[in-house]
Amino acid sequence: MRFFSAGIVIGLLAPAALVSTAQASGYSLFGHAHIVSPGFNSAHAVQLRSTCPGGSPMCLVNNTYAFGGTDFDIPAGTTFATFLTLETQYMFTQGSCGGGGPRFQINMQGGTDTGNIFVYIGPAPNYTLCPSNIWQSTGDLLEGSNLIDTSQLDGGTFYDPYSAALTKYGSYQVTGVQLVTDGAWSQVGNFQTVHVDDVDINGTIYTFDQPQTEEVCKKDGWEVVTRADGSTFTNQGDCMQYFNTGK
């Protein structure tokens, strides 16, 4: 998986930071990402959270900012020309869009030219001021004049119309896709929390309603996951016991 931070925070995050906290067929969660209830007209969604302790620039200087994301498996041989759909339902519960998050990251490889295409979520062209506590659809982000960030690739630019990017990079291999948020440094409260559901990755729709295990309780997951009746847990052990025994 290639994970690059966008916006002001540019650089490669250490692979050791990308610890999977939950896994199911076709995707895995990393960083501050957890399954939560309810979802968009469904039982579950994924919560992605970014934090910036002490605010910007302190968390950037100290490298203490946190991020969360979902990494999706992509079939071998997929090219950008055959990668046709990128869409999700999303809802902010803390902060708003901004600072490059949330975004899709399409990992690209064309010969020796490798990098990410960033596809930002929120109102174009600034991708800020997303409303809170209401589910919204991105619509299909890979269409005609929609703007995507191809600046990490040869000949790319920060705002590239999808149609132009398709012409330039259609033959490139798509080796992975992530949906990530890491823009808490841009938020007044230093938090950026967004729920995502019904993620459409090239025609495969992820609803995150697979059976959960005790793994969702780890890394503070017990604070956001709930029992089937909506009740919360008192600590990690309480949460793990529930998923092991149902009590």
Q: What layout of secondary structure does this protein have?
A:
Elements: E1 4-5, E2 11-12, E3 20-24, E4 27-31, E5 33-36, E6 45-51, H1 58-61, E7 68-72, E8 86-94, E9 103-110, E10 113-120, E11 136-137, E12 147-148, E13 160-161, H2 162-169, E14 173-181, E15 191-201, E16 204-206, H3 236-245
Antiparallel strand pairs: 1-2, 3-4, 4-7, 5-6, 6-15, 7-14, 8-11, 8-15, 9-10, 9-14, 12-13, 15-16
What can you see in these coordinates?
This protein is 9% helix and 34% strand. With 247 residues, it is mostly beta strands. It has one domain (4-10, 17-229): Jelly Rolls (Sandwich). The chain has a 6-stranded antiparallel β-sheet with strand order 3-4-7-14-9-10, with no helix packed on it. Strands 5, 6, 8, 11, 15 and 16 form a 6-stranded antiparallel β-sheet that branches. Strands 1-2 form a two-stranded antiparallel ribbon. Strand 15 and strand 16 form a beta hairpin. The termini are far apart. Mean pLDDT is 87; it is low at 1-5 and 7-24.
